[in-house]
Fold these 3 entries.
Entry 1:
Amino acid sequence: MKITYNWLKEFIETGLTPEELHKKFFTLGIGVESFGPLYSEVTKVVISKLLKADKHPDADKLTVCEVDTGSEILKIVCGAKNHKAGDKVAVAVNGATLPGGIKISKVVLRGIESNGMICSEKELGLADSSAGVMILPADAPIGKDFKETYGLNDWLYEIEVMPNKPEYLGIIGIARVLSAALKKPMKVPEILLKEDPSSKVNDLAKVKILDKDLCPRYSARVLSGVKLAPSPVWMQVRLRSVGIRAINNLVDVTNYVLLETGHPLHAFDYELIKDKTIIVRKAKDGEEISTLDGVKRKLDKDMLVIADTEKAVALAGIMGGQVSEINEKTVNVLLESAYFEAVNIRKTSKKLGLMTEASYRFERGADYNGIIYALNRTAQLINGLAGGKIASGCIDEYPEQIKQIFITTRFERVNKLLGTNIQIQEMLDISKGLGFIVDKTDNKSFTVIVPSFRTDLTREIDMIEEIAVIHGYDKIQERFPTIKLQQQNTSLKIDELAKQSLVKRGLNEVINYTFMNKSWFDRAGISADNEIRTEYVNLMNHLIEDWNILRSTLLPNLLNNVRTNTVSHGNKNLKIFEVGKIFRKIGNQYIERYELGIIITGNTSDSSWLQKPEEAGFFYLKGILEGLFCDLNVKFEIREANNNFYDKTSSVELLANGEKLGSFGEINKKLLKMHDIKDRVFYAEVRLQELEKHINIKKNYRDLPRFPSNKRDISFIVDLEVCAGEIKSFIENIGAKNLEKVEIIDFYKGENVESGKKSVTYSLTYRDAAKTLTDEEVDTANKPIAEKVIADFKAEIRQQ
């Protein structure tokens, strides 16, 4: 949002210099992206009267002019053709400077001395192109400085507008905040309309709203007999100063009021509206409209349009259509001022790739009660600049009143949170100064009605922030909070230790946004009773439709990372992890907790002549997890379990002392297809705060084994329902002599294994601390283990 110092002064006399105002913006939390003087390169340009313009005796395309600058008569050679004697013009006299480093001095052109330059809009920096010199109004004062007269001695502020500060998208909103902070009155232009009693708007036009959810309110006025012409110089200068190109008096007024009020408006050629009826409806699938930028756009049934009885004439809240635009033949105008639902405008704008000044404002929430003021202000200015008559009355279709928002704020809570001692009366004065209506108050709290231009405010904390801004952040003393350390917080330790463990194993960390799309659950086939689906947290004011909830799992964003790297960038070998928060709503309680997500695909390393590439599969991921848990000194076990994320043949849970810590497995094909991934992907998730209970960071020393180990591998064929982790625990608890470790090293189901069965291979490690074990001793210890597993789990030894 760009504003100028002089324009703002019309709404509030701050008593501050441009530099002081810049600093005040900072203390009010209003970001200023850029700040500086306007037209500083333009000097010594004087309003003058053209006395005569004769043909140059030696050049067909030049004229020799005499101009009265108020202090002297100058002879100037000019190349333009659009001037005549009696015109008022802007003359850069000798010694003047113009944009682009141009310096004016006496020159001789085809034998005739020229003492200055008669300037065009382009030469003054007021337009990108010009057809001739700039002709000033007939009442322009001769001899006066051009910059001073038309407001070029000004300063520009480019305001950074955050999504929750829509009031900063209009000069009135910024002036209101300054008024409350500086305790100075704000001036809003008074509306005095001269309506034509013989012409009633309800006889001239009709408005029908067919979708009141997407357009809760629509207002219109009709003006007749207007005269299309260039805007006055002061308006052109002001619009150009904030980066808007002047077009004509009708269109310029709608842009001017947009910047004043922050509310978008649109002007239709009244005669091009079929049956003089405005219909606010959804577009038909495949319906087309050519917008004012000359592009033919195909619409869908979710987009809102402004139509007449025959066709769409505008994209609601975004851009008008060529079929109803103001043109050189326009004499009668229908003015629109409406309120459109923000999310629909955002979706339509994004789908069409069309962002405008109007859509930018509607997306952030316009003022539904400011519609009539903006409409009347526009009608007043058009009437003053383009003449014509204003039909009496105003169409205001408002089918269902938008409910007011009430916020109760505790006085004690304000000071406790801010660390201040703000008096009750100051809190009330600040609220009133910002446009809130104080509904009721007692000795503990006060309740306000939120104004229609601040629909982003809904909670007590929002009001506390508003009070803090106006009271002044610079007045809040810096002090360190009092902290009582009761116990060591190991969450951060787990976080850092997990990262260190994974990085040293060749994984890369990624950081994603904490949002996801609710539709992912359906598309991914997540069951209705899955906790990630039943406990997600909705976002109330999401600006991006694809991010409409807080993430309840890390997986969707990690799969997007895989797609971006493997599909878009050709990085087929990927090993990444993320440590981040997931969010859940359990009953009325909101929960945030840290989780670890690990995802791998492709090979364990890039291929080279030194080694053959190996697939980074299920057991590779299991090895990463074993390393992580070893670093954290946590004993864990795995158990087969069904999970919507994984292929049914490769899905296990991670447990420690019977408590579930997470899961890992191979991502199922449906999920991969949904994310356009063709390669196999393996994923693990670990609940860090549950893991916290089991870690033992203390390091214990023990001697390295003096004698070698002796291993035996056994493959059992068991029913599919039997958990591999259960057999592992069973073997560990047998108490076999010299058994040091039991590992699951292979799963298999398929050829040579009976249907309904699976093969699980275990590696058993034996070691004696006092001697080297013989094969006979190991076989003696190993044989009863196999027999007990066969008996208890109805297993059989796989022979091949």
Entry 2:
Amino acid sequence: MLSLTPLKTRVAIADSKSAGTWVDGFELVSGPGDVPAAITLAVGVDGTGAACITSLSSTDVANAQWRHRVVYRPAGAAQWEQPVEIVGFSGASRSVRVTDVAVAPNGVAVVLADRYDAPPDARIGSLFVSSHSPGGSWTTPQQVTSSVSGAAELGLDAAGNATIAWVHRWQTVPSMLHSIRVVTRTAAGAISPQTALTKESGSANSLSLCLAVNASGAAALGTQVISQASQANVTTRPSQTGSWGPFAPLFTDATAASSAPRSVAVSPGGTSYALYWRQGPFVVTNDVIGMSRCAAGGAWVSPTNLSVPNMQMSNGLIAMYGEDAIAVYTGAIGFGGGNPGIEILQAGRWRSSAPGPEAPVDLVPQGTRRLLTQVIGDNAGSVVVTETVFGGTTPRTFVLTFDRVLPIRFRLVDAGPANAVVFSRDGFTVATAGSDNTARLFHTSNGQQRFTVTHTAPVNAVAFSPNGLAVATASDDKTARLTTIGGTETLRLTHDDRVTTVTMSADGLRLATGSADGTARIAEPGSTNPPRTLDHDGAVHAVAFSPDGTRLATACNDGTARLFNTQTGAQLLTFPHDGPVHALAFTPDGTRLATACHDGTARLF
């Protein structure tokens, strides 16, 4: 808000620069008939940004109409595109409108926004979805439902396929009753039929909603099911195209006077976490905050309290750090009997290897009321919190970064000497190549072993696919293999001698190997095309794709580095050296090649 008299507002998007400064990259200031009131923002791992801006038609909030506009910023760009309206001014509403935004790792952005079609107090409307692909524009909004009544949430997998869930009004008279419905939407825009996850008969009623989807499409959803009391229920889905399981109640009317889910999250490996608020069971003021989790394909474990008793919860969110969950929440300790309590902002961690969450820690000094907007965990164990602080006369928004607030260090255990180690692109997994005939994958969050790839001789090299969902291995058993994170072998290349090296192109379409048999080979996973064989006059020690994947460089024991066309296998250039060449690498733009030679030199071509 810029001023009260006259009322003038502004929404903006700022980027954090060096020395902790913030610089506005986009802003929208109110004008006649257009009063920006809210903004929802999401940023992808590649820096792609998307936001939805909600505006009022006038400063008469009780009777104003609402509309939604969207903006997009491509990865690496400094400027945001011009706003595009996806939902025009609709019926007047006294309730806050529904919006959600998500950006997939591939730069696909999806926005969910509602349109209010009913009288001001009816609290029901339509839900629309639009998407923006890199290099494209916002798609024509598609109507998902005409009966959203309250919350609606959106989640994306790595390809930009969406899962959309909302509170659905299934009965209006004689009383308003609600259910939870979901649809999926492919990155190409195909929307599935609606599925009701909770009952739509009798007096069945479900109100709140929280949704999470991981990169593989595994999902978790929580809601509050109304029976004699209101209790937290959770369910999971194994994949984007899989089926939702039945809801599991975290509590019954005998174990809680009331309960509700506040946040859910899904780890890269498919473990689901839920953060809940619980009251009672015997004293209605005995509030606690806690967590439960469900391993992929398993059942939800018994809820575990996280906070101290008599902890009134304002709100809370879960951020994932690899396979570990970090719950951040606000509330008040010691409330009740007219005592408002002491306001807190705390975080608690549940390591994937532990049976329950660790004791929470204060992130800031106690005493000031706060409301969380967003919580993000990065690959280094830091937590970024966006919050509204209600100290003083005017609420203010802050972004706080807690560097390694919950640190972790561990030793990876490998049987026998390790020959190579590599991180996945997202940093959540590390792979080792071992002399014990195995490649092992570990969670970087806790050091727990994820799975192994077994050969019949020592493993010399290991490489991840660009999306992190598969790992390539090279072994003395004369084979190179491509194995999914789930443990399924999808490709095997056989040489006439030990395989010394393996790599994958940046687009994931090609895999290259080098062998002591004097050849390098290029294969196309998932294709019926036979591998191309590139002949040399000695053992091949290293291979590297150019950034665009059109060329392959090889380092050979015959004293040469060579450059090949990856589509045809034709040799393009030879770089002579005075001894065996052991390693090489392209510059990021692919215009130069560096080599390391046994003659004591490194060279740049």
Entry 3:
Amino acid sequence: MMTKRIGLRIPALTLMVMFGLMACEDEPTPPPEPGTISGTVTVDGVGVSGITVDLSGLATANAMTDGTGGFTFANLEPGDYTVTISGSDSELVTFDQTSAAVTLESAGMEMVAFAGTPTGVQRVQIYAYYGIDGTKPNVAPAPGFQVDIFPTEFDRDSQTNRLGRATTDTNGLAEFTYNRSADTDNGGGATDNTIYTRVTATPGPRQIGQTDLQQTISYQSHEVVAMAPDTMDMLNGEVTASLQVLTIETTYSGPEGSGLPEPGWVFRSRTDTAAAGVDSDDADGTGIASFELFTDVANLPVTVYFRLDDSQPGDAGNIWTQTPEPTAASSGAGRHLVFVHDGTRAPGGVDLGVQRVEYVTQALFVPVHHESDLGEADPVYTPSSDDTNGATNIQVEVLADDQTTVLRTATAASNGHVVWNGPRAAGPTADSLNAQSVYYVRASSLSGNISIVTPTIYRVGQAGGGSVGTFGPGEGGFRHSARVCPLGADTVIANCSAFAYKYNNTTVTGTITSGGSPVSGMTVDLYRCVPPDSSSCTRDGDPISVTTNGLGVFTFSGNLEDIYEIAPDAGSAGFTSTSAVGGSPIVVTQGSGDVQTRNFTAS
């Protein structure tokens, strides 16, 4: 049997297509490529810069148009977007559209155009600054200047057909809005897109304009907002200059630290460093003085020098020097605060800095008081109860550092104050004390009836080392004086005291009897009582002892004002006990010159 073969013929082209399709099914689909959306914003065919363009949709972004009015958003995924413009003034320009929908294909580039047309309303901006062209331009905005605009130069000169009037604001800006149709040429015909400005009023009699006060401003049809070609420069002749005087800390090692305000000092302004002073002002409670500088601008610039008056009406009792703070503007051998008034500063205040005072000589204040409180272990000055009765019998000396050489001697005044060249003294005196030295003060009584009941000598002048008062504001010092106040608060002069005294002329006497007969030779003790208590006694230290005479009489004389207990010693006379007339123990309150009598009898 014969076998028959059957052959299948497939054209070559068909095979190529089949294999090609199989190959295509194996390759991945390429991803979409990013695209770009660009565009322009124009007014009257000219690109406008500074317009905000927002993109929304598949992605969000924003941009500002450049100098040609163009903008671009790149690397965007294909999809639907919306482009929106903002930042234009609809009063000045209208656009054919402010928002456009865009479909971006893969690797596509789409363009969007926003075309604007001026409405016929024009806006002009003019700025005014205090300053001088070329040397100190645009120092500060100049508000309050009135500016007018005119369509022609003739109108400006004759001040007719005014297009608008505005006053510069706090930023120095005067802004005008008007219809372009009113801006005609000199013949009153066609619009020439040119206006003319003029400053017509100033905010004060000493504030004027100096340059660029009459400007010509031209603009193109697409320039709906035009700006003057230069700022108007103004001058100001009204300035308030403020200065402060501080007393620097003075210690043995010299000036250091910050100072204290000095009220009442007189500053004086001068036209030069050698002039006598043309104006003055007293420093207030914070040590600040102010000067109103009114200068006609025609006289500018003017340099004004400030310093403390050499002859102070109050605190000139000490020798002092003055120098400006290092940060202050100074001149004239470093003694003056200086202000160059050139008119470029806006009206208002200017802080010229601090004038520092350092005392070469200083005052010493040493108060004393009569200690009236009885029974105090350590006297403390109490203004409500203590007094200065008898203070004129207290002498205070100033000693050198050797505690021997006497430099100054004075007697306390009736108010208890001893002052060497004290505050508000008039003119330097021989009593002035060196601010950089160490001294000692010593008190003594000039009366046999008065005794000092506190330490009689203190160290003053240099901080530390046991000093109770220093020159300067530390440890009892007050600006230009040292207060010696160990017995009271040094911050309040009324509470300050250095030495306390008491009268020593009190007497305690009495008689001791037994069975109606005097007891002689009996020891009687007198104890000081602390704390002060007139009903009981806590004995302080050893007693003072006396014996009764042949009449049974005992006497304690020359006692300080205080509270005492009298205690007869029965054992010394062979008695077992004694009792007081009226109770036991006996508490005797002594005052200045008092005589107290207490009698005892045997039990």
